[in-house]
Design a protein that fits this description.
By secondary structure, the protein is an alpha/beta fold. It is built from 15 helices and 15 strands. It binds nicotinamide-adenine-dinucleotide.
Length: 445
């Protein structure tokens, strides 16, 4: 089967409900004339991109990594070396030839234009809307990491592309892996079924010691934009701040429990511990109250501070009890406690949710099941963007204002960005970046 026919076959098997017989033959590998290999491309060959590629290549059936791209050659080389080592016993899975290793800020187009069925998008999230939109335009199935954007225009771009992906029946997974983790899959539906009655308040936390240190000195790079790219976490246009980049996981669980989006939020935050200029412009703590339409409040805190109380978890109180959740899957932390009666404690298996999310996505592609997490990923992204808009501005902001009028923090020309482009934030002559100031910073366009 030619590559085009093979892709059409995979597409067709996704867009029509397969008969049990055909499905059986496909699953048993007896689809004689067909080649059911899923060819994968990777954009963003860092820690998570390499991990996601490994998980993609570990799904059932024939899978090959055939194209990779990154801003920097170092990432391409180290990712491929890691993957080749991981698949030493199945070398055919890592099949990237020299012509399909792409470097630069346009690498995403070259990977997506390659003969692939699915693309993994794992760059810093500021690029995600542009990369996602292009992948949908080219008819690729997609696994994209969270968050799916860093600002409201990006969320709107993702929502528009998600709709097109749905129309084309493309499969889209989003790296909010708690939604594929057993303790959550077991307990959240119990809450939806009324185990704690109506939810009246929620608490969600990502309070931790922080992430990696800035990765390059100015003397090692060609431009200010390259400097920021290496240390993307510390720049809002690339990362969205840690409320968006990390705490999205816990906000996502809050929205999933409550089954609705908040209607407004207010909060406060700042930069107290990680205040040195080498840490760019982001805050090190945020505390936000999200209000739902029925008056329920979701209290959210996230911080990056060492030697402090640390907690990454989600909780809700209802009219009949409480629920506690934590991705550590421990029975101590995953329980439903009614005000009267026995607590229910999750004691089941804990398969790696990063693997499960890929297993589910690839199965959906092979079996033609619908699978599109882009919209819910965009909503959780929007909640974290709204939280940041509140902490940066010090204002109370509604969901609708934020979604429809939230200011752009990424450059307009993300699709055409080059190493010599001007980034949206630059330091003063002392190397100090402007930091948001509540009461002064404007976040609505
Ligand atoms: N789901 C999870 O639990 C989880 C865990 C870690 C990271 N992530 C997400 O994965 C994404 C990547 O994070 P990471 O930890 O792998 O970061 P990383 O810095 O290790 O990797 C990012 C890679 O993207 C490359 N890159 C930057 N801009 C690019 C561009 N325009 N085109 C191509 N490549 C580009 C960088 O050079 C780097 O190799 C982020 O969105 C992050 O939030 C998710």
């Amino acid at each position: 089967m030619s590559d085009t026919n093979r892709r059409n076959f995979l597409k067709a098997s996704s867009t029509v409900a397969l008969s049990a017989g055909l499905l059986g033959r496909l699953q048993s590998g007896a689809f004689a004339a067909g080649d059911d290999t899923i060819r994968v491309g990777l954009v963003g060959c860092g820690g998570r991109g390499s991990g996601a590629a490994k998980q993609a290549l570990s799904t059932e059936g024939k899978v090959q990594l055939v194209a990779v791209g990154d801003a920097f050659v170092e990432s391409v080389d180290s990712s491929l070396a890691q993957l080749q080592k991981a698949f030493e016993s199945k070398p055919e899975r890592v099949a990237v030839d020299a012509d399909h290793k792409f470097v630069g800020l346009d690498a995403y187009r070259k990977v997506i234009d390659s003969d692939i069925d699915l693309v993994i998008l794992a760059t810093p999230p500021g690029f995600r809307p542009t990369h996602f939109e292009y992948a949908v335009e080219k008819g690729r199935h997609i696994f994209m990491e969270k968050p799916v954007a860093v600002d409201a225009p990006g969320v709107r771009q993702v929502l528009a592309a998600a709709q097109k992906a749905k129309e084309q029946q493309l499969k889209v997974g989003v790296g909010l892996q708690r939604r594929h983790q057993n303790c959550y899959l077991d307990i959240v539906p119990r809450i939806h079924d009324g185990a704690i009655g109506d939810i009246t308040s929620l608490r969600v936390y990502w309070n931790s010691g922080g992430v990696w240190e800035p990765r390059r000195e100015r003397s090692q790079v060609r431009s200010e934009l390259e400097y920021q790219l290496w240390s993307w976490y510390y720049y809002n246009w690339l990362c969205g701040d840690h409320i968006c980049e990390q705490h999205i996981h816990n906000l996502d669980i809050g929205l999933w429990l409550k089954q609705q989006n908040p209607v407004k939020a207010r909060g406060m935050g700042g930069r107290q511990v990680r205040a040195d200029k080498r840490y760019g412009e982001i805050f090190d703590h945020h505390a936000v109250e999200f209000f739902f339409g029925d008056g329920t409040v979701m209290y959210s805190t996230c911080s990056h501070m060492s030697n402090c109380y640390h907690d990454v978890s989600e909780h809700a109180v209802g009219t009949k009890g409480t629920v506690d959740l934590n991705n550590n899957s421990s029975p101590r932390d995953n329980r439903v406690t009614p005000f009267t009666g026995e607590a229910y404690v999750y004691r089941g298996e804990n398969p790696d949710p990063y693997q499960v999310e890929h297993d589910v996505l690839f199965k959906a592609i092979r079996e033609g099941q619908s699978h599109n997490e882009a919209e819910s990923g965009a909503m959780s992204t929007m909640a974290s963007v709204l939280g940041r808009m509140c902490t940066y501005s010090g204002k109370e902001i509604t969901w609708d204002e934020a979604l429809n009028h939230g200011a752009r923090v990424t450059p307009e020309n993300m699709a055409e960005l080059a190493f010599d482009s001007a980034p949206p934030t630059v330091p003063n002559e002392d190397g100090v970046y402007p930091v948001p100031v509540p009461g002064l910073t404007r976040v609505l366009a």
